[in-house]
Design brief:
4 domains; 6-stranded antiparallel beta sheet; Rossmann fold; D-amino Acid Aminotransferase, Chain A, domain 1; 445 residues; elongated
Amino acid sequence: MQVVGRIFLSDRLVENLGINVQPLVQVRVGCLVVTTEMVVKADERATYTLSPALAQALYVHKQKRLQIRYDSKYDMLHLGPTIGIFATSLPNRGYYEPTHIGAELIFLSHISNTLPGQTYIFTPASINWDNLTVRGYSYRPNSSGRGVWVSSLYPLPDVVYDRVSTRSGEARDQIRNTKIRLMQQPYLNYFNPSFLNKWKVHQMLLTNPWLHKHLPETRPLTAENLEEMLKIYKIVYVKPSNGSLGLGIIRVTLDQKGNLNYVVHRSKRFRSVADNATDFMSRTRKIRADKPYIVQQGINIATYHGSPFDIRIIYQKNRHGEWQIGKKFARVAPKGSSVSNLSSGGKALPIKILMRAMFRKADLIEEKNRQIKEVCYQVAQTIEKTSQMIYGELGLDLGLDKSGHIWLIEVNSKPRKTTETQLSKIIMRNAFKRPLEFSTYLAGF
């Protein structure tokens, strides 16, 4: 056994943490564990210091003050938290448009400076598996207003917050293999591990009977399923199982002559007509490109000034590991469209404006908000329970029909958060901060 350096603990700290005093002790930072000498000194303050050799072996940086806890399960001292934000690649410019993933990474790095421990952004190429270290990056603003990315060596983290931003990036072998290896590390917690598939999510949610009344009927897309669902609902939505941002959605309406009128939502909308379900499948084959699709019951969705709207909720775990609504706003579809995604021209509005217009009375609005909160909680709990994975945030799209009933339209495990907002700046900031606070909780601090 190699013994490196010393850790000096005050007797007050030893007493406060209930540390088992012994000549040698294991000290962990992230996934790195080093055996060192334990030296207890009389001091009324609850403090610790590392010898230079131990700090070097654990890649502890002078400017980072790490918290300390006694991990009785492993009988070791744990310094941290060390949080890694996993990205496909590092932004190579010092500034990005507010809606770009690069701006999100810059903002996360910036906010992490206000929290205890050390946080860095890393990519698959950053990791040295031989010694469990990472070339991690943090953002440093400079006087020109365009900051720079500074790199340092860190241990593999306590917690990985997955911000791989595209499905194509997630499908790459390098990303997938790195993720598997990270999840196999004994001291590492990993959350928001992958994008969600709409059909699999629907099957997960069906395991919770409480949710049934909030789930639109959903089936895999086949000509037979499309035909049957149009007979029942007259309007259905055909959606890519692995799609996001509202792209590729097809609204299909059955008219009185039995024709299928459909509108395709891509970078531009276009309309067409099919004779029947088989003809529709043939005409849209190129659009669907052999990717799996679902067909979903159309909801008689509530409107605001004639335009359909839905409710986007960023649902997050806080520093106590409890779910809460981090951000809630309405998205109103552009004129003539049924898709409210902001990327497709939808407009964000404060939810209270639309709730007031729809329900008018304060007690009715309060009850509807309570119901929305319960739907969010049931969805999040069910996804975690059935997937056996950890999630720290979800994007939920809820619809209200004309009678005010709540429907779950979609769940997204990688909700995009913009650093620009017409709503509250504090709410926006906290929506970025909360996953890092949850990371601290997961790390045990």
